[in-house]
Amino acid sequence: MKDSIVVDIDETLIDTSSRKRSAWxxxxxxxxxxxxxxxxxxxxxxxxYAPDRWDIWLEFWRxxxxxxxxxxxLLALDKAIPGAAEVLNxxxxxxxxxxxxxxxxxMRQLTLRExxxxxxxxxxxxxxxxxxxxxxxxxxxxxxxxxxxxxAEGSRIARxxxxxxxxxxxxxxxxxxxxxxxxxxxxxxxxxxxxxxRVVKEWRELLG
Length: 208
Fold this sequence. Notes:
Radius of gyration: 17 Å
Structural class: alpha/beta
CATH superfamily of the largest domain: HAD superfamily/HAD-like
Shape: globular
CATH class of the largest domain: Alpha Beta
CATH topology of the largest domain: Rossmann fold
Number of domains: 2
Number of helices: 10
Low-confidence stretches: none
Strand content: 15-25%
Number of strands: 8
Strand order of the largest sheet: 5-4-1-6-7-8
CATH architecture of the largest domain: 3-Layer(aba) Sandwich
């Protein structure tokens, strides 16, 4: 059985900034500058534009995760991060690719079609998703840990790639040997990626 490589989807493989911007516009009626979306977590954006409006927070995520029909059409705004598909297709020759994501189970087919549209390998590869919106919003760290344990049941995890620094404490504790942080330079510093074995600024650094 092939060893596996676990790869996060959003902001690691796929740039969702424009989709998030449009989702905020739907629920707030405001044009938020794209650089604000790229530089700030969604909870910070809520605190700036609609403090303590948890109804807006819920509707934002219901839109982004396609519980609202309007969210489905916004998927066309997503773009592949440069170099990601090229590297993953190369790795897929020797490894099983396991996609891991905070996207919820209702998006499984939508996500599969999007990965195919953007050129990512989807043959016998696996997608591990948050069970529900409630799980995703209330305890994303625990959801990520449970999904990783599930991935480890199927094959040995040789490598993980993610853009979100906090998840690397989970990857490190699980003993994944190669832990690659794809740095989101608009939001994080290299020193934020504790628990990685290396940090890269773009996918093409991983082609060698």
